[in-house]
Amino acid sequence: MYFKKIAGRRVYLSPMCTGDLEQYTKWLNDSAVSDGLGNSAKVISIEREKEALDEMVKSGFNFAIVRTEDDKLIGNLGLFDINHIHRNAQCGIFIGDEENRNKGYGQEALTLLLEYGFSTLNLNNVLLKVFSFNESAIACYRKVGFTEVGRRRNSHFLHGRYYDDVHMDILPDEFFAAKAHMLQ
Q1: How far apart are CA 107 and CA 101, in angstroms?
Q2: pLDDT beyond 90 at 183
């Protein structure tokens, strides 16, 4: 069901599988996941997720994050809005179950994705957006080498409060310097 397209030490990235439809639907209806993705107000049905998953599988740069030790699906990440002329893209990531969060899986998966983006796809800039309340994600992105490049202030309303959209990006030299630092 999973294929080690890009392998790391504790996780590997596999092409997404439509057989994971129920798992993705469960995760996307979990407020801990949907809050971070900005989907809190949406109700995701099996049918709606099937359409989205079918489209993501076809687009080619979306990956399942799979734990190496037991081949268990733990999340998703991908590159999107890729512009090969300007050599830029956006990325997104989530880890589904709480038991797999804050264990470094996301950092390793994002490192694998960026290595692929910079070394294989020849990208020069990757952008991501994160909400200001998601401090653990921001810390992870900084460890990988992302830098905050701007904010859209009070632009996201969640649970009675406003939060900033934080825009972060990374260039190849920043990524490879951060990666070398992580290996020390």
Answers
A1: 10
A2: no
Residue 146 CB coordination number (10 Å): 26
Active-site residue (options: 12, 105, 141, 163):
141
* 143: Cβ contacts below 8 Å, ≥ 6 apart: 107, 178, 182
Identify the pLDDT of residue 71: 97
Residue 14 falls in which region: left (phi positive, over 0), alpha (psi -120 to 50) or beta:
beta
In the residue annotation, 141 being an active-site residue is answered as yes
Report the relative pairing of strands 6-7 and 11-15 from DSSP bridges.
antiparallel
**Partner residues linked to 76 by β-bridges:** 64, 94
pTM reported for the whole predicted model:
0.94
Three-state DSSP state, 130: strand
Q: Which amino acid is at 178?
A: A
* Per-residue pLDDT tens over the stretch 45-92: 999 999 999 888 888 799 999 999 999 999 999 999 999 999 999 999
Q: Does domain 6-183 have CATH number 3.40.640.10?
A: no
DSSP 90: E
Q: How far is CA 161 from CA 42, 103, 133, in A?
A: 18, 28, 10
Instruction: Please compute the mean of the pLDDT values over residues 146-155 and round it to a whole number.
Output: 98
